[in-house]
Amino acid sequence: MTATALPQLAVPRTLHDRPAGPRPPAWWGMLCLVATEAALFAVLLFSYFFIGAHASVWPPDGPRPLTLTGINTIVLLTSSLTMWWATSGIEAGRVGRLRAGLALTLVLGIAFACVQSVEWAHLPFSPATHSYGSLFYTITGFHGAHVIVGLLMIAVVLLRALLGHFSANRCLAVRLTAIYWHFVDVVWLFVFTTLYLSPRF
Questions:
Q1: How far apart are CA 192 and CA 71, in angstroms?
Q2: Is residue 28 in some structural domain?
Q3: Rounded to the nearest 5°, which phi and psi values hold at 162?
Q4: Terminal CA-CA length for the chain
Q5: Cα(146)–Cα(116) distance, rounded to whole angstroms?
Q6: Continuous segment of H or E residues that includes residue 154
Q7: The total number of structural domains that make up the chain
Q8: Is residue 62 a part of any domain in this protein?
Q9: Cα(159)–Cα(194) distance, rounded to whole angstroms?
Q10: Residue 21 confidence class, pLDDT cut points 50, 70, 90
Q11: Quick one: what percent of the chain has pLDDT higher than 90?
Q12: What pTM was computed for the model?
């Protein structure tokens, strides 16, 4: 009696970081996350305008100074450019450019977070002072939390880049991190316009 040969399954010898198709599942997952977070920010900003429209004086302590925050805004927007530079670099196979771009983005993001913490330390109100104070701390704090998450993501990707994990065909993690960081920067433009510019209109 002879043994029946079992069918052999073909196993691919290599695995690729980028699944077939221009939009892998992880890309859609990040898109859904960004859309959800954008909706939360929209609710917070709507609350700011809604409460402000029914207040006799808004903001109660007058508009916030623009000098420090304006410079900080430029710093954050510049970090978006360095992130784009890093991402386009690895897509072209330039690992060195990826590492340099990620490092610059990390430094600029940390600088933004530090300056914002300095501003918080010198605010003339607290979250319990009035509704404006509560909204100001909630909105900027919520954005600051997103900045910290983005910085952690960039730090992990930078470490992986230093270990040589990425190439032109293996850079999905870089692309996803870039999407999140660009989202954080775009949201700040709405926060900056709402909290710092709109009281002057």
A1: 12
A2: no
A3: -65, -25
A4: 92
A5: 13
A6: helix 131-162
A7: 1
A8: yes
A9: 36
A10: low
A11: 86
A12: 0.88
Torsion angle, alpha carbons of 113, 96, 90, 145, to 10: -10
Contact in structure between 169 and 16 (CB atoms under 8 Å): yes
Of the candidates 148, 155, 164, the one whose C-alpha atom is nearest the C-alpha of residue 93 is 164
Residue 13 lies in a domain: no
Which ranges in 54-94 belong to alpha helices (H)? 67-91
Tell me the one-letter amino acid at 51: I
Integer angstrom CA distances of residue 151 from 30, 112, 187, 196:
16, 11, 16, 24
188 CB burial (10 A radius; 0-12, 13-18, 19+) = buried
Is 187 exposed, middle or buried (CB count within 10 Å of its CB: 0-12, 13-18, 19+)? buried
Token pair 């069918």 is at which residue? 7
CATH code of residue 82: 1.20.120.80
Residues of the chain with pLDDT > 70, as a percent, come to 89
Q: Name the residue among 76, 67, 109, 40 with its Cα closest to residue 196.
A: 67
Q: Residue 57: phi, psi to the nearest 5?
A: -130, 125
Q: What residue type is 25 in one-letter code? A: P
Q: What domain range includes position 149?
A: 36-200
Q: Is residue 6 part of a domain?
A: no
